[in-house]
């Protein structure tokens, strides 16, 4: 797994439309349900994985643009080095966008929360997480944060076609870590 970076998110409780008692809140990588902080892309401070190299970069943006991060959670992500091409049904390499510097600073004591599968149709930022966006958490065993419990499970679900009727890929697998806010 490759360190991909950080994101502050406004974590929300399980929406009423997600019909499962397993989930209490959404820690998905995508910003569809639990939104990312502000309109972060417009600041052009993200790295080649479309996350941030350190919490300080986000915190400095928040100060500069008067963004309140107090009610948000800080996450750190690692990404599997291959993505699933859903058109040819095989794993393929991908690289961070080379026009953005990528120098991810590792967190001191991250807490592994689980694994998410996320679409990257445009090959830039995380688009949709089928577990929440496409109600797949209703079909599979997930954590209370709407994440899978293992990398192997995420990989198996992708390879078996479990997400075929969801958003188009390619699909990437992320390790999702919670980081104590500074």
Structure write-up:
With 182 residues, this protein is of the alpha+beta class. Helices cover 13% and strands 24% of the residues. The strands form two sheets. The protein has a five-stranded antiparallel sheet. It has a two-stranded antiparallel sheet with strand order 4-5. The longest helix is centred in the first third of the chain and has 11 residues, at 55-65.
Lateral arrangement of strands in the main beta sheet? 2-1-3-7-6
Q: Would you report the number of β strands?
A: 7
Low-confidence stretches: none
β-strand percent reads: 15-25%
Q: Quote the distance from N terminus to C terminus.
A: 25 Å
Biggest β-sheet strands, sense, barrel: 5 strands, antiparallel
Secondary structure category:
alpha+beta
Order of helices and strands: EEHEEEEHHE
**Oligomeric state, counting identical vs distinct chains:** single chain
Helical coverage, percent range: 10-25%
Shape: globular
What is the overall pLDDT average? 93
Q: How large, in whole angstroms, is the Cα Rg?
A: 15 Å
Q: What is the number of helical segments per DSSP (H or I, 4+ residues)?
A: 3
Features:
five-stranded antiparallel beta sheet; alpha+beta; 3 helices; two-stranded antiparallel sheet; 182 residues
Summarize the structure.
The chain has three helices and seven strands. The chain is of the alpha+beta class and 182 residues long.
Please outline the helices and strands.
Elements: E1 2-10, E2 35-36, H1 55-65, E3 73-79, E4 82-85, E5 90-93, E6 111-119, H2 130-133, H3 151-159, E7 171-179
Antiparallel strand pairs: 1-2, 1-3, 3-7, 4-5, 6-7
